[in-house]
Structures are given as C-alpha cells and as structure tokens.
Amino acid sequence: MATGWALAVAGVVAWLLARGAQSNRFRLSDPFPAIVPPVLSLDDVRRTAEGGSPIPPMEFIERVLQACEPARPDIPGTMAVEVAFVPPAARRIESRGFGWPTDWMRRDRHCVYEDAVRGTGLKQARTNPAGRPLGMHEIPSDPLLIPPIPRWRWEGRQLLYRPPPEETGGVFTSTAISPPALAVPAAVLLLLWFATGALQWYLRRRGAGERRLRVVRLLVIAGAALVIVGLASLRSAPQPPRVWVSTKMTQVGLPPAPVYWTREGFARLSLRRHEIERLPAAPDGAQRLAKEIMQAAGATSGAPDSLYLAVGGASEAMLDQSLSRTTGITYRFPVLSVKREYYVRRPDFGPSEPLAHAPGVTTRAFRGLFSVVFPGADANQPTLVLSASLEMVGMLLVGLWLVWLAAWYPLVGVALWRIARREARGLCPRCGYPVVMPDQPPAT
C-alpha cells in the first residue's frame, strides 16, 4: 500500500510540473480609501480636535487605523495616511459568507442608498429587458437597472446564483458557491482519518481492543467535523458594510523611472501609521490626531454632519518593476507560486533607493493563500514569497484519494474472487497449494 501511495504522489507531482511554469511582472497596490466605520463626520472630528467629542479617544484612533489597514504588513518602509471629507456615497456592498478557511458560500447585495454610509433611503432596482446581457465575470454598471442575467451560471471555479432583483427586495444579489473551498475541510478530515488509522494500527499491535479503537476513531473524526462547522459559523456573521471611495488617480513618472499614482482630493497627514498606533499611550493622542486631520482636510464646504471622513494609505515601498517577477510553478492548475520582490522607495517619500525587507522568515494567510516570506540578505537581494493555494491543495488531496479508491476497490474485488475460487477447488487461499487431494475423502 505504501508503494502505491508513493507512486501516486510522484505521479501527481510530475503531472503538476508538466503543466508548466509562467513568469509575469506584477505590482503592489494600496487599498482603496474607505469611509471610516463606524462613521465619523466632519463635526465629530472637529469636536474631537476641540476636546469636546463624546467619542472615546481610543475608539477614535482605532476607527482611523481600521480604515487604512495595510494589505501586506510585511512590506518594508512606513505607510502614509491620507484623509478627505466626502459627501454621502450611494453604493455599498453588503456581504455575508459561510465556510472555513475560505467561504464555501458567499452572498453579496449590491445596494444603492441615498446615504450608503448610514444605510438610509434604499432605492429599488429593477430588471432592464433591453439591457446588454452580461458577459463572464461582469457585474451591472448600474445597480438599479439590471440586464438579463442567467439565474445559474458557472464562472471560473464558482457557481453563481443571481435571481432578478424583483425577487430579492429590489437589490441585485449574487450568491457564489465554491466547490474548491469545500475540498479544504474534506482534505483535513481525510488526513485526520489516515492519521488516526495509523495510530489505531499501532495500538492494536500493542493489544488494544479493536472495537474500542474504531469507536474512538469515529468520534475524533466527528468532533473535527463539528469544529470545522463551528469555525464556519463564526465566520458567517454579517460583515460591517464597507463604503469605498472612488477617486481619480494620477500617474506620476514614466518608465524607466519609478512610476506611482496619487489620489486627487486626498491630503496626506504628517503622522505615519506606525506613529498613529502609538497615540493611545498619549493622554491627548485622539485630540492630536483630530487636529492633524482638520489641518490637512478640514477646509471643506458642506454641512458638517453630512461630510464623512475617508481614510486611505500609501506605502513607502514600491516594487522595482524591472526586476520583480511572479512565477506560477503550476500556473495551469494554480497550486504553487514564487514571487521575487525588489523594493524601492517612492519618490514622494524621499530619495528613490532600494529598501531592504525586515529580517526574519514570516508567514501569512489571506483569502485561502498561505505564504512564507524569505527576506533577502540586503536591499539588493530579492525577497522570496512562496505561496500555496489551500483550495488547490485540498482538491489535489481529495482527487488523489478518489484515484486511490478507484484503483483499490477493483483490486480488492479481484483478490476476494481469487480467494473464493481457490477455496472452492480445495486450494490454500494464500498460496494456492492443494490442501484437499482430489481422491481424498472429506474429513468427518
């Protein structure tokens, strides 16, 4: 059995490598600016700067930090914080997922409000029969006029269910079912099943009861399944609606010089994000931060209670596009990828020069992608990021197990047929040696 497993694993690895590799350039993008959740109006920030806000100082600072969380905390350098006071947005996406470690099922409601920040004044969407049918991986450009869409459609690795808005309360709603995400918990249970089987074999050899071991093994698997369902339930809580701010981006620089983008309408604070993180220790930390915001973006026309604080981040480090590459080792079946990252300082942060990654191997998990970061020895050496897709790994393990079953049961059936045939002919079931001679009378 061990030899068969080894051959199967070697065959799968060879098949993956035969799928080929592909290298591409890539870039790191800063997250879109978002309106601070829970909402902070211009009036709230002004009163905090004056020391008379009812919002607790710690909560005020945490709200600002949550709105500009870095997508890659391991990136070297600092992060600048950019702020603006914006009028109420109209669109927001309300999401809820269920599954572990990634969503097995996810529902997105594309809502349009008079004030999307506070969720008031919901506008009704309707089907537009004359609209252009949506193509693959498209969403309606106008969430109030929904063109004809197939109720069920398979896109990529997901099955989408999108009923007409008249059936969902006047809101365009999309539900995604991801079979690859289900492969991850299935693979975990399979690995646990074989691990407990090996332990059961060891304890049986030491004299433990077979029936008791079988019951314990089943209880362990059932307990693990309940834990997975419990983790999925914890992740299924409705996520706070996030209202992103769409801004015009302006390109600065042309290749081969460093190229970066700036946001129009946003002002940069003199405090960096790591300095804001230390403000809770100061007695006037929230007031100091509010004064910074008012000084940078407070000169805005409009009603103070209907202008909301939007916060974005800009990383000091950017990728050197001429050297950085991402290589999909199994890009036709995306299981493994390797990134070679070279960092340089953005020109608006100071002299454009190479930046070194912080020392020490780090790991991170984000949206079903598990990565290990190996920093370079210095700024001129690449940082290697080895990433594995948990969903693809789970599909491989489950597929390997199904192939093993497809090969194992026919072999077992042939073996049982040979044993029954030998016993009928009076032969030893194990070696086929004659046990009963043809002219020998049966024993009485």
Structure overview:
- The chain is about 30% helix and about 25% strand.
- The chain has about 450 residues and is α+β, with helices and mostly antiparallel strands.
- The strands form 6 sheets. It has a 6-stranded antiparallel β-sheet.
- A hairpin with a 6-residue loop joins strand 4 (about 90-100) and strand 5.
The shape, in one word, is elongated
Largest sheet: 6 strands, antiparallel
Structural class: alpha+beta
- The count of strands amounts to 23
Beta percentage is: 25-35%
| Chain-averaged pLDDT | 83
Q: What tags apply to this protein structure?
A:
elongated; 23 strands; 444 residues; alpha+beta; single chain; six-stranded antiparallel sheet
Write the layout of secondary structure elements.
Blueprint: H1 2-18, E1 22-24, E2 34-35, H2 42-49, H3 57-66, E3 79-86, E4 91-98, E5 105-115, E6 120-122, E7 126-127, E8 145-146, E9 152-155, E10 158-161, E11 172-177, H4 179-205, H5 210-235, E12 249-252, E13 260-263, E14 267-272, H6 273-276, H7 285-297, E15 308-315, E16 317-319, E17 325-328, E18 336-341, E19 343-345, E20 354-355, E21 362-366, E22 369-374, E23 383-389, H8 390-424
Parallel strand pairs: 7-8
Antiparallel strand pairs: 1-17, 2-15, 3-14, 3-15, 4-5, 5-6, 5-11, 9-10, 10-11, 12-13, 16-19, 17-18, 18-23, 19-20, 21-22, 22-23
Helix pairs in contact: 2-7, 3-7, 4-5, 4-8
Quick structural gist:
The protein is built from eight helices and 23 strands. The protein is an alpha+beta fold. The strands form six sheets. A six-stranded antiparallel β-sheet has the order 1-17-18-23-22-21. Strands 4, 5, 6, 9, 10 and 11 form a six-stranded antiparallel β-sheet that branches. It has a four-stranded antiparallel β-sheet with strand order 2-15-3-14.
